[in-house]
Amino acid sequence: MKTFRSLVQEAAKPKSRVILFGRMNPITKGHEENVQAAHDIAQKHGADLHVIASHSHDAKKNPLSAEQKVKHMKRAFGHLPSTELKTSSKEAPTILHHAAQAHAAGVKHLIIAGGGDRAAGYHKLLHDYNGVEGKAHGYYKFHKVSNENTGARKEGVSGTDMRKHAASGN
Over the chain, what is the mean pLDDT? Predict the structure, then answer.
């Protein structure tokens, strides 16, 4: 049971969240490295981590359903404390929707974690809509939006090869 003092101290701290958003269809060693790096970032900031895989599903490029992705994410990353594993949805398909959900949950500092090819683009996108009302994705206004790089892509870790295996039922 938490003491009154610890509850007051928790409430006084600005709430932070790290979001890692990606296709993850299927999960690769590169995704594992990104999730672990994002978890380390979250721990450094005293934040929770939300790993969000896209809900996209088709035979050619996205062989795993949203349910299968969550199952595999829980098997791979379920041991990480303060980490929520989920997929996007038709109602909340983009990182902007998830930013609005974070704002509604009281998050004041949003940290976008991503590989070197993704983080900067998400950072700009989220800044462009910070405090902008009337958008389909919902409203958010963070005191701070920052991005942290989880590392560069590594040669030999191929999502394309993994998708071929997943599509063939392997």
Answer: 87
What mean pLDDT is predicted for residues 110-131? 87
> What is the distance between the alpha carbons of residues 32 and 154, in angstroms, rounded to a whole number?
12
Which residues, including other chains, have CB under 8 Å from residue 159's CB and lie 6 or more apart? Answer: 23, 25, 26, 28, 30
CB 26 within 8 A of CB 72: yes
What's the sign of the alpha-carbon dihedral 5, 6, 11, 14? positive
Query: Is residue 94 within 8 Å of residue 137, measured between CB atoms?
Result: yes
Residue 73: helix, strand or coil by DSSP?
A: helix
Q: Is the peptide bond before 26 cis (omega within 30 degrees of 0)?
A: yes
Measured in Å, how far apart are the chain's first and last C-alpha atoms?
46
**The pTM is what?**
0.83
pLDDT tens-digit series, residues 86-107: 999 999 999 999 999 999 999 9
- Which residue's structure tokens are 């974070």? 102
At residue 6, the pLDDT reads 62
